[in-house]
Amino acid sequence: MAWGNIKIKRIKWDDRQVKIQLSSKNKQKVTLEIGNGIQLTNSKVNGAKYKIKDGKLMLYLSNDKIVEIVVSRLK
Hints:
By secondary structure, the protein is an all-beta fold. The protein is built from no helices and seven strands. 0% of the residues lie in helices and 65% in strands.
């Protein structure tokens, strides 16, 4: 369990992308800051509303719903 009652169910990565699966015990907004060389414009999020602002991925999580995120490196 991470801060804010976020449960990280799975993280998988390779040289091109990171896949994250998580859920939240509470309805909340979570901001992910991703490092340099990452292309957020091609990010995919299933299971939550989201927006990209100032190089950060903002997720709007619902109670106990699994969210899948895919973030790709710059090509």
